[in-house]
Design goal:
The structure holds two protein chains of two kinds.
Chain A: H1 3-24, E1 32-37, H2 45-53, E2 57-62, H3 65-75, E3 82-86, H4 87-95, E4 130-142, H5 154-157, E5 167-169, H6 173-183, H7 193-207, E6 212-213, H8 218-224, E7 229-233, H9 234-243, E8 247-250, E9 257-265, H10 272-282, H11 285-295, H12 302-306, H13 310-315, H14 323-326, E10 330-331, H15 338-351
Parallel strand pairs in A: 1-2, 1-3, 5-6, 5-7, 9-10
Antiparallel strand pairs in A: 3-9, 4-7, 4-8, 4-9
Helix pairs in contact in A: 6-7, 7-15, 8-9
Chain B: H1 2-22, E1 25-27, E2 33-37, H2 40-45, H3 48-81, H4 87-95, H5 102-113, H6 118-125, H7 139-164, H8 167-175, H9 180-208, H10 212-217, H11 225-234, H12 239-279
Antiparallel strand pairs in B: 1-2
Helix pairs in contact in B: 1-12, 3-7, 3-9, 7-9, 8-9, 9-12, 11-12
Classes of the chains: A alpha/beta, B mainly alpha.
Chain lengths: 353, 280
């Protein structure tokens, strides 16, 4: 379809739908609807996308994976074209039959992905998801206020006296449990009840030394000095480093998980071609580099990463981590029925005195 | 009557019935609802883990209620004892915090209490050099937040009966030889108990279901029942269990409200009797 025809169609649709759209403040049916975390793409991305392809789109934001999953499961994915979710959730959407297979012919920029990013265990060959950002979960700490740099998850879970009451852990169940699972040398997808009980006991004893569970403001607690060491996603630690260079990030010797945030196209989408165009647009080296430089997350895009300025990489050393090292870590996978056990364990940890 | 009934049905009865219905189904593996009938969600509610969270919430809400009643009653008493024309001004200041958002009021406590916060800075300015006390993310911080946010309810609920109290009753008590303390205990307090009960119920019911304050001021380390319900709906995606928990919470609130209504009825009856006796 030519751009003119498309523009005509959207014009006609909008005149018919105008009253309705105004009344319900819903996006017009012809517009591409993208759901993403707030601030996770360039603020002018949709304007640039429209200038390049003629397709109008609208971004709605979700605060958490769980929030958008609730909506997608309830509506069967209707009303959304492209959704940004973390890989275990992309897996679930695929198992529920809500995702459209990725049409590689329509996304030439897939060639920009690192080969490793096309072989991720959750979706080998990018059948239903395209990775957008990836990274690690480790320890973010104030090098100027601590005697020794942390090296192990145990430094967080059984902290020295100087750190007691000055550490935080992530509250999201999978990452909270991952800290204990990694410390014990288990898989981050472990479902054996006996091993999970060990992890639970470890995390309950760790709770007594914590300042708080924190998913959103942990880096500002480091900046203010309220906390000295926090469990953090590498990209969020970078927000702290940007404000205070004494903040450092380390992956404990027991390892990290490999988290991957992905883009998926909904099977219920009425604009699949435009949706693939959008993914292609995001994978453009320049656009993807914007993400790396502005949200301080690693992106699985080779030319985009190679275009990053040296001073940026020097400021945020974890951005320069070799891809080969990154993909050595285990991905968080969908654990199916065991998710209910995970939720219960997290409730037990949070209710423990 | 009819519009009120429609309003109640559409906005209260139907939504509650929907939530109640959810509680009798199974959770789908990936969230969503699996429409097979089950009672297991209600079984889980009485599981020691979750029942314990209910008890803990009740304890925190109860503590907040007692503190709020003591402070709120004293404040209401002071306002009602002030000159008549000043009373509206004091009441205005008492409810003024309600004009700002609940979240902002709660965040203000974070600014005050955190380890590098205003209280610590004040202590340092006064010459304190030791390790700053840990005040935020404690049960005390959660209780302080609840008391602060719901105190105006108590003040208003207690002010109403206090301001209506006939001053001649206290005078008569004093004339008959009762001390100020006895007058308060035997005359003023019994006549204003309905106000205290109404205020206390407000604070308790709002506190026990609260999830914002424990999340922000408790740092996620103190889970109340509201947080548990929130988690089931928004993170565990276990709507049926969340619905069962919410229903249990609503049942507790209803019981408390009914007890208060019965109590108020009886108190009103007794007050009518007392006044009737005085007249005769």
């Amino acid at each position: 379809m030519t751009a003119t025809a498309l523009r005509y169609r959207s014009l006609r649709t909008s005149s018919i739908a105008l009253g309705l759209a105004l009344a319900l403040s819903l996006p017009a049916a012809a517009d591409l609807v993208i759901s993403n975390w707030d601030g996770y793409m360039a603020p002018d991305a949709m304007t640039a996308f429209k200038a390049e392809t003629g397709v109008a789109g609208e971004v709605v934001v979700h605060a958490t994976n769980e929030e958008i999953m609730g909506k997608l499961v309830a509506s069967g994915g209707k009303g959304y074209d492209v959704v940004f979710v973390s890989s275990p959730f992309a897996e679930v959407l695929n198992k529920l039959g809500l995702t459209e297979p990725i049409d590689h012919a329509k996304i030439p920029n897939l060639a920009n992905l690192y080969p490793e990013a096309t072989r991720l265990p959750h979706d080998v060959g990018n059948a239903f998801s395209v990775p957008y950002t990836w990274g690690t979960t480790g320890l973010c700490y104030r090098s100027d206020l601590m005697k020794a740099a942390p090296t192990s998850w145990n430094d967080l879970l059984a902290p020295s006296d100087e750190l007691k009451g000055k550490t935080t852990m992530l509250a999201t169940d999978r990452w909270l449990l991952a800290a204990g699972q990694l410390d014990k040398g288990f898989s981050v997808n472990e479902t054996d009840p006996a091993k999970l009980a060990e992890v639970k006991d470890l995390l309950i004893s760790a709770k007594k030394t914590l300042l708080a569970y924190d998913d959103t403001t942990f880096y500002s607690k480091l900046v203010s000095g309220e906390a000295l060491m926090v469990q953090a996603w590498d990209g969020w630690c970078n927000y702290g480093i940007a404000e205070k260079p004494e903040i450092k990030y380390v992956i404990p010797k027991e390892g990290s998980d490999l988290w991957v945030d992905t883009m998926v196209v909904m099977k219920a989408s009425q604009n699949k071609d435009a949706a693939f165009k959008f993914i292609n647009f995001m994978l453009d080296a320049k656009n993807h580099a914007w993400a790396a430089q502005n949200i301080d997350y690693k992106v699985p895009n080779k030319p985009a990463m190679e275009s990053l300025p040296a001073d940026f990489l020097a400021k945020f050393p974890n951005m320069a981590m070799p891809v080969a090292d990154l993909v050595k870590f285990e991905q968080l996978r969908d654990v199916g029925e065991a998710q209910r056990d995970y939720a219960k364990i997290v409730s037990e940890i949070k209710a423990a005195q | 009557m009819a519009p009120a009934l429609v309003w109640l049905t559409a906005l209260m009865v139907v939504p509650c019935a929907l939530v109640l219905a959810l509680a009798f189904f199974r959770r789908g593996i990936y969230g969503g609802i699996d429409y097979t009938f089950t009672l297991e969600n209600f079984g889980l509610v009485v599981d020691p883990l979750y029942a314990g969270i209910f008890l803990k919430s009740a304890r925190i809400a109860g503590t907040a209620t007692i503190i709020a009643v003591v402070i709120g009653y004293a404040a209401a008493y002071a306002i009602s004892a002030a000159p008549r024309r000043l009373q509206p001004v004091f009441l205005f200041f008492a409810v003024l915090p309600f004009w700002s958002n609940y979240l902002i009021r709660t965040y203000a406590w974070i600014v005050l209490l955190n380890r590098e916060g205003l209280v610590t800075q004040l202590l340092r300015w006064l010459g304190y050099t030791g390790e700053p006390p840990s005040m935020l993310y404690t049960e005390g911080a959660v209780i302080a937040g609840l008391v602060y946010n719901y105190l105006p309810f108590v003040i208003l609920a207690c002010y109403a009966p206090l301001s209506r109290l006939n001053p001649e009753l206290a005078e008569a008590s004093r004339d008959l030889g009762a001390s100020a303390a006895t007058t308060f205990r035997r005359v003023i307090l019994p006549l204003t108990v309905p106000g205290i009960a109404a205020g206390a119920v407000f604070v308790f019911v709002l506190s026990i279901g609260n999830f914002v304050t424990p999340a922000l001021l408790g740092g996620g380390r103190f889970q109340m029942i509201g947080n548990l319900v929130y988690d089931q709906f928004l993170t565990a995606n276990d709507w049926p269990f969340g619905a069962a928990l919410a229903m249990a919470l609503i049942a507790i609130m209803l019981l408390v409200l009914m007890a208060q209504a019965m109590f108020a009825d009886r108190a009103a009856g007794r007050a009518a009797e007392a006044t009737g006796g005085a007249d005769g």
